[in-house]
Write a structure and sequence with these properties.
The protein has about 190 residues and is α/β, with parallel strands linked by helices. The protein is built from seven helices and seven strands; from the N terminus they run H-H-H-E-H-E-H-E-H-E-H-E-E-E. A seven-stranded mixed sheet has the order 3-2-1-4-5-7-6. Helix 5 links the parallel strand 2 and strand 3. The radius of gyration is 15 Å and the shape is globular. Bound molecules: S-adenosylmethionine (SAM).
Length: about 190
């Protein structure tokens, strides 16, 4: 009962965030458990790994990561919205929550020696020009260990970026249970 009311509360909070900032939140409801499962599968993560999440919102993928055996203290969550960031700090007190613009934070993370095993993104990337999308993927792949996946979901039938010699891309089946139905694109560097 408590988790049902928390889930309803999160949906209302998400909808309210969308009303205030439709371009940034980009969806009226949080992603489904089915989409979260597809993101986890595509990222090929293993328990104990250090994982980066961009645009976690109310934490649907974050919870799926914990369920998959990732330790909370191994999570770095980058969220633009102050309201979502505060909630994430309460719900995941051992994770590192960075409140800010993921595109800028990625540049800063590139200065750190410690790498991530995978990156999961809920950013509304398709709203940005292709150069920005490419830069985001490139910056993310730079801070991943060799073989690590950058995973991004999208509602669109269009690929996020054109094929590129720098990385290999694969796409999941469409997840029809999600509102709206979505696919997961995953990218990893071709040459390490
Ligand atoms: C489509 S929602 C996805 C939320 C969550 N991952 C999910 O699937 O339910 C997009 C999220 O990205 C965040 N966001 C948008 N632009 C951002 C940026 N430049 N940097 C960090 N977070 C951003 C929004 O605040 C929102 O939480």
């Amino acid at each position: 009962m408590a988790s049902l009311s928390k889930s309803i509360f999160e949906k209302i909070k998400f909808f309210w965030a969308w009303i205030q900032s439709p371009a940034s939140v980009a969806s009226v409801v949080p992603s489904s458990m089915e989409l979260a499962a597809a993101m986890i599968e595509a990222s090929e993560i293993e328990p104990g790994q250090r994982i980066l999440e961009l645009g976690p919102g109310t934490g649907v993928f974050t919870r799926a990561l914990l369920d998959a055996g990732v330790e909370e203290r191994q999570l770095v969550l980058v969220e633009y919205s102050p309201e979502f960031s505060n909630q994430l700090r309460q719900d995941f007190p051992k994770a590192q929550v960075i409140e800010g613009d993921a595109f800028l934070v990625l540049k800063e993370l590139r200065q750190n020696a410690e790498r991530f095993s995978a990156a999961l993104s809920g950013l509304p990337l398709l709203m940005f020009p292709e150069e920005v999308r490419e830069d985001c993927i490139r910056d993310c792949l730079q801070i991943l260990r060799p073989g690590g996946y950058f995973c991004q979901f999208t509602y669109s039938p269009t690929p996020l970026v054109a094929d590129n010699e720098e990385w290999e891309a694969k796409v999941s089946e469409r997840i029809w249970q999600n509102i709206p139905p979505a696919v997961v694109w995953s990218y990893r560097r071709n040459v390490d």
